[in-house]
Amino acid sequence: MTIAPESLHLGSDHPLGRVRRLGGMVGLAASAASLLGLALDPTQFLQSYLIAYIFWTGCALGCLALQMINHVTGGAWGTAIRRFLEAGTKTLPLMALAFLPIALGVGRIYEWANPEHVAHDHLLQHKQAFLNVPFFLARTALYFAVWILVSRALRRWSLAQDATRADLPTDRLELISRGGLVLLGLTMSFAAIDWMMSLEPHWQSTIYGLLFMAGSVLTAFAVMIPMAAVAATRSPYREVVTADQFHDLGKLLLGVVMVWAYFSFSQFLIIWSANLPEEIPWYLRRSGPGWNAIVLVLIFGHFALPFVVLLSRSAKRRPSVLARLGVFLLVVRFLDLFWMIAPAFHPEGFAVHWLDLTAVLGVGGCWLAVFVKNLEGTPLLPLNDLSLPLPESQHA
């Protein structure tokens, strides 16, 4: 079979184009509704926006992590979705710009940014050298600078690999990824502390950053696998990316589900068994009426159900099954993040606002539209990666 490189480009009639149009329409409509909410209740808007923002930024960072893991370890699974991962990381400049509402409303979100709270709290005064607005914004700028620079370097050498069969681009991709994974681990951990854990500055967890990283990688898988399944409905992508690659993606998805469950249970077990007054209230606020229902959904939907489904070899080899599971996990992933963050805003009990839905749909719809746009202009598969080689005739 002859596969010309131009046939791997995203055509105007490709099913992913419909994803872009649908995402754009939903994103714009939900964003308009969210702006109405901003006018009615600015504080609630910022709280809902923060959750949505962290969720979709985590997806982009998960794409960056998976991309570098594949460059270091190899494997056809990563080559099959590399262009999707790169499209995800190319949204990072957009997410850096989207941080502006949080930067402008930081005093409405974080109590340590409110001088009145700090004046009556000795612990916040003690932490003020780290938890202050200028340093918080400077750290965020540093995080995005690192993420964008690493992602652009990877993109540059990935495209260079398309133009040659020499070893240099592949070697550079591996070298950048080895150092990039260290930088990503550090910056994501501190970002989780800054953006999420500092919402409740009297509480701390040493595994919190790992939870954020594992969840972000899982979110990225939950988006990339359905996208690859959609691409696999069209030739020539489906002739190159076969059930073997989806089987590998399913196995990796199972592994990440188990890692997330391990980190989550480890944190719970240590804090609950210690029963310290400065730690246990975090779980008490998240186990009251309403919140405990989300806990049950997370236990069964975030772990038990995916675990059982992904044990099946046949399920892992069927793109349609993996795609449906990915969409389901995407919803559950948002519930997990909502459960982690929202109780900090509502310590009095369970509360859900309509802005929570419009914010995540608004940011998510726009993110997906830009994501698909980023796929245009380059082949959906790398041309010279030997882990998933295209037919020799492409070079004729």
Describe this structure in words.
The protein has 396 residues and is mainly alpha-helical. It contains 19 helices and no strands. Helix 11 crosses helix 12. The longest helix has 32 residues. The protein is globular and about 70 Å long. The mean pLDDT is 93.
Strand-and-helix sequence, N→C?
HHHHHHHHHHHHHHHHHHH
Largest sheet: none
Number of strands: 0
| Average pLDDT level | 93
Cα distance, first to last residue? 13 Å
- Tally of helical segments: 19
User: Percent of residues in helical segments?
Assistant: over 70%
Q: What class, by secondary structure content?
A: mainly alpha
Task: List unreliable stretches of 5+ residues.
Answer: none
Features:
396 residues; 19 helices; 0% strand
Q: How would you concisely characterize the structure shown here?
A:
This protein is 73% helix and 0% strand. By secondary structure, the chain is mostly helical. The longest helix has 32 residues, at 42-73.
Helix-strand blueprint:
Layout: H1 15-40, H2 42-73, H3 76-80, H4 82-89, H5 92-97, H6 100-104, H7 106-109, H8 115-119, H9 122-126, H10 133-163, H11 168-195, H12 208-231, H13 237-240, H14 243-274, H15 281-284, H16 291-310, H17 313-316, H18 319-345, H19 354-374
